[in-house]
Amino acid sequence: MGAYTALTPIVSKIFCSNSQAVLMVRRRPPTVSGGGFVVTDRDQRVVFSVDGCGIIGASGQLIVRDGDGTAILFIHKKGGIVQALSINNWWKGYLMDYGEPSKLIFSLQDPKPLLCMNGDVRVTVEPKGRKRHWDYEVTGSFSQRACAVRSRAGHVVAQIGVKGMLVGKDFYHVVVQPGYDQAFVVGVIAILDNIHGESTRC
């Protein structure tokens, strides 16, 4: 028998694996403006896709779909006066239920570069605990495809842009460690992609 791997589901335990997952992210053709990207496994099977504003027609909104094309995660950038005065841009991730956003499952804070010197992108999983302000953080440079998603304890959850593998703007690898939610990782990548004005942004 193999060693037991503790699962850490955020979107769903069906997206957690007992083994390391190597995912390949490929930008949709540039003819689809703001078209998003497709995520495949080692066997070139589509396991996730992300729709950007060129497809769903709304800026600051993203939809993550599973391999069958079913919407599993709706993400949007928070707006309004309170947001305008904040030192962070806030993103909210919701589970999809019968095609509609339902339960809030995570929030991501992206520091505004002109207002905040500490540029850490941090993610809080709902519901929030009383003594913690974040659960995961993104370290490194997404634009250079050299970054990682780490847990609050410092463990690497996912590595984006893996040394020794083909890496570029339109095609790169993501390695998700055993037990972690791959759909959640793809959701974080979708936000990073939008923040950096890439495939999901119109």
Automatic annotation (TrEMBL):
InterPro entries: LOR, LOR_sf, Tubby-like_C. It holds the Pfam family LOR. Gene3D superfamilies: LURP1-related. It comes from the Eukaryota. PANTHER family: PROTEIN LURP-ONE-RELATED 6, PTHR31087. Belongs to the LOR family. This is Protein LURP-one-related 6. It comes from Oryza brachyantha (malo sina).
